[in-house]
Structure formats: structure tokens, C-alpha cells
Amino acid sequence: MLLSGLKVWTSRSLWIHRLHEGINGGGKARYSSCSPKVCIVGGGPAGFYTAQHLIKARPDVTVDIYERLPVPFGLVRFGVAPDHPEVKNVINTFTQTARHERCSFYGNVNVGKDLSVTELQEAYHAVVLSYGAEGNRRMGVPGEDLSGVYSAKDFVGWYNGLPSCRELGPDLSCETAVILGQGNVALDVARVLLSPIDLLKKTDITQPALEVLEESRVRRVLIVGRRGPTQIAGTVKEVREMVNLPNTRPDMLASDFEGVKEALKDLPSPGNEHERLEKASRVWGLRFYRSPVEILADPERSSRTAGIRLAVNKLEGSGEGARAVLTGEMEDVSCGLIISSIGYKSLSIDPSVPFDSHRAIVPNNMGRIQEAPGLYCSGWLKTGPTGVIATTLNNSFDTARSVLEDMDSGTLNTSAAKPGSQSINALLEKRGVKPVTFSEWEKIDSEEVRRGAAIGKPREKLLTVEEMLQVAGK
Ligand code: FAD
Ligand code: NAP
User: Fold this and answer.
1) Residue to probe by mutation, ligand 1, list 75, 77, 193, most atoms within 8 Å of CB
2) Is 362 annotated as a binding residue?
3) What start and end residues bound the annotated signal peptide (predicted)?
4) Is 371 exposed, middle or buried (0-12, 13-18, 19+ CB in 10 A)?
5) In angstroms, rounded to a whole number, what is the distance separating the alpha carbons of residues 135 and 385?
6) pTM: predicted TM-score of the whole model, two decimal places
7) 385 lines ligand 2 (CB under 6 A)
8) Rounded to the nearest whole angstrom, what is the distance from the C-alpha of residue 74 to the centroid of ligand 1?
9) Is the CB of 229 under 6 A from ligand 2?
């Protein structure tokens, strides 16, 4: 009986078996009579993993990914440190997904500006928002906007070629830099600031960033956390990379480690390498139990920073949940560069989408956006800005499962045909927006690889949207 309802389509090589009005074990209509069209907003890991799971799980779903930039892969391209090329291998999986016949990529489409979420909902059965966390948490202390103070988000974007950070021009003419926050982003930034230039030259760091780093006079980097050594947010692997960084030596305060030596036995130590350490000309240190209170202005150039005032904390409670409590004591540290690395933050891109401004996420239940049927979310927008790519994979697969469950149960109505990209492309054309397809991105990719090869790098990224569009043939 099931087989009598089975239709086989063959359009190019794409098709598939599809149950027309098949009955599943629960007696419910399993697949509807028109093929479900899903659109995803954001072409980072969450977008690609959500698409991958949807396409794999159901042979009749088509997925369109809309990405703000002409280039895909989100933080894999613009966040992951240039000296971690192995992390970027996930791009191969994303590329396979993008090349799948039931997946299309449309770069250079800024949802919330070029298109509204409502327009996408009219064109698709389901819309999954996966646009990440593009804002940054502010410290909320006086002097935060002085020159010499940068967010890690912008600093990372600058050395990784994010077009909006191209003009950052960080001033690295001072000797001491303070990084606030002790997560993996802070450790990435510290490593990039202190790495020997010959190591960075072989990476895909942008050439302008390389030139600034080559002239850098920063010799000492302090990575400051508000809690203690057992609460450090960065992972052992990243701390070990700092310990092993050529031409650098750690400089810690013994008092910070009192009473926690046992808990720290797994942390890497530099071992018996006195000679290497003695010769090191650059220094890095973790500083604990300190919170930023004020960025201090240079008395001679009041628009610039010359230091930071830190409150000294003590811990209340223990373990991961321990809280930093002010002791009332203060400490000033002289420095000419301050990088705030206290976390990213999602932003609202469309007033029609519920948004929890306090937690800076879209309120959701297993990826189903609350009080918004047909709207889903995945990735950092769903969870907040924590977790590695593997975490993002899991939460994106969960969201895809929610979409599929809703299709199967009929909660998501897929019975009426939807126009999908056809109507959206017509809207974009009317608005003068030129989407970049995945094969057009591949032209940009080839050009970047070609430019990189000429100077011994894996790629030299194009730094402006205009140049990307030109190379894509737009
Ligand atoms: P994103 O990667 O930010 O992707 C979101 C995408 O949405 C972007 O492409 C963006 O351009 C697009 N977008 C934004 N707004 C719109 C809009 N209005 N319309 C259309 N598209 C839009 N994890 C690891 O496992 N290893 C690492 O080494 C590592 N390094 C990291 C380094 C840094 C600096 C950071 C910040 C994170 C790092 N991570 C790393 C974590 C990893 O990058 C995240 O887990 C992952 O990128 C989150 O994926 P996402 O798709 O939710 O967000
Ligand atoms: P994170 O891991 O959440 O670290 C944020 C840091 O900022 C913590 O030390 C936190 O301290 C501190 N902080 C937060 N608010 C603060 C405040 N108001 N004042 C002072 N300090 C404050 O975030 P992240 O470093 O941005 O990284 C984001 C995610 O990407 C993480 O999951 C990370 O692992 C991942 N990532 C991975 C890699 C990698 O695998 N190599 C590289 C980069 C990023 P508390 O702990 O006290 O809150």
C-alpha cells in the first residue's frame, strides 16, 4: 500500500523517492503534496549545518541560504585565528552542502535591510535565522571610547579581513597591552599580538594586518580575568599554545595561584626550558581577580588611553559558579592598548522577530522561535555567543530536527506551494541587490588563493565588498 503511493521524479540527477500521501507508523500524513521550501538567514556554520541536516533527512526539502556578505562561512573565515588552518577544514563540508542540488547560496543579501523576515516567510514554508552574534558586549566603564581601546570583535575582524573592520588601523606603538576577558578569543588575540612575524606570514592573515604587526612595539600582554585560575574560560589547548609560543615567556603572579595548585595540575607548564625562556623578548601573563573600572586617559593626549583602573575582586562560592565580588581595593596598570574580549552579542535585525534584549538571543524552544510559527533559529543566535564549531553543529542539527518534526506533525503547514527564491530574487532585482551565488563565490575563492600563492600564503583575502562583487562578475 505504501509502495502504491510512491512516486519517483527524475529531474536532472536530483531526484529521489518521495511519498505522495504516504502514511507513517503513527497514521499521520508524512510528507505533504508539495516540496517544502526552507530558507536560512546566515551562511556561517549554523546556517550550513542546519541546511546539511535538512537536506540529508528529507529528500524533498529544498534549502536556500541568504548571507549578508558576498562570501560564505561566517566566523570560520572572519573569526578563527589565521594560525589555526586545520579548524577551517569544515569549509569542505559546507562546500559539499552548498553544491548539493537542493541547496542554493545567495550572498550579498542583507536580511533586515534588503529583505524583511516577513517577505521571506511569505516565500518559504519555514525560515531559520542563523545570523550569529555580530555585536560585542561593552564593558560599560568610563573611557571605553578613548583611542587605543578596541573590541576583540573588531580587532579579530581586522586581522581576518572583515570588510567593516578594514579601516580599524590599531595603534601598536606601545609596549604593554591589556586584554580584558580570559576566553579563547582573548587567547587568540594575545597569540596574534605576540607571534613571531615569520609564523604569521605563512597564514591567511591579511597583508595590511601583517604589516602593522611587523612594526608592532607591543612586548608585554596581560590577559585579565575577573575571577580565578579555576574559572578561566579559555581551554587548555589554547593556554598551551601561549606557553609554547617562540620568543615569549609567561609572567604570572604566584599569589594568584595560592590554594588552587591541585586544581591546576592539568594546566601546561613551560617545563625545564630555562634557556629559551631567558632569551625571550616578549612576555605574556594571566592576571586574575580583576575587573575593569575605568579606562584612564593620557594626561598629555586626553583622547588616548594610557592605562586602566582595575577593581580587585575576591571569589564567593567555588567552581564554575563562583562569583567575583569587589574588595574595594583598586589597582592601576599603565598600557597604551586595551582590547576588550568579554564576549560577542546577537543583534535584532528585524522588528517583527521576537528578541530578548537582556539575554541578546531570540527566545526559542529547541530552535522554535516563541510565538512565531514557521520561524526557527540556530547557532549563536539561538544559544548566545558561546561554544565551538562542534557545539554549533549539534545545536543546528537540533533545530533542523524541530523543523522536520513540525513538518511531519503538520504543525508547519507545507500543503500550499510557495514560490521560494523565485519571488525573492524578483524582489532583490527590483531593489537593485545582486546576489552572489556559490559558483560566483568560488571565483572569489580562486582569486584569493591565486593572490596568496604569489606571496607564499594559503590565500590573500579580498578586503572590500566592492572588490568581491567585481571578482564575482557582478
Ligand atoms: P557566525 O559564524 O557568526 O555566522 C553568522 C553568519 O550570518 C555570518 O556569515 C554573517 O555574515 C551572517 N549574517 C549576519 N547578519 C546577517 C543578515 N542580516 N542577513 C544575512 N546574513 C547575516 N570555534 C572552533 O571550534 N574553533 C575555533 O578555533 C574557533 N575560533 C573562533 C574565533 C573567534 C574570534 C570567534 C568569535 C569564535 C570562534 N569559534 C571557534 C566559534 C565558532 O566560530 C562559532 O561556534 C560559530 O561560528 C557560530 O556559528 P554561527 O553560524 O552561529 O555564527
Ligand atoms: P567566553 O569564552 O565566554 O569568554 C568571555 C570572557 O569574558 C570570560 O573570561 C568572562 O569572564 C569575561 N567577561 C564576560 N563579561 C565580563 C565583564 N562584564 N567584565 C569582565 N569580564 C567579563 O567568550 P569568547 O572568548 O568571546 O569565546 C566565545 C566562544 O568561542 C567560546 O565558546 C570559545 O571557546 C569559542 N572560541 C573557540 C576558539 C578555539 O577553539 N580555539 C577560539 C575562539 C573562540 P567570566 O568567566 O567571569 O564570565
Assistant:
1) 75
2) no
3) none
4) exposed
5) 10
6) 0.92
7) yes
8) 5
9) no
What residues contact residue 440 under an 8 Å CB cut-off, 6+ apart? 70, 107, 472, 473, 474
- Measured from the CB, is residue 47 less than 6 Å from ligand 1? yes
Compute, in angstroms, the gap from residue 129 CA to the centroid of ligand 1. 13
Our mutation pick for probing the ligand 1 site, out of 65, 80, 155, counting the most ligand atoms within 8 A of Cβ, is 80
The three three-digit cell numbers of residue 282, written as one number: 616578549
Q: Identify which of 438, 468, 462, 469 has the alpha carbon closest to the alpha carbon of residue 448.
A: 462
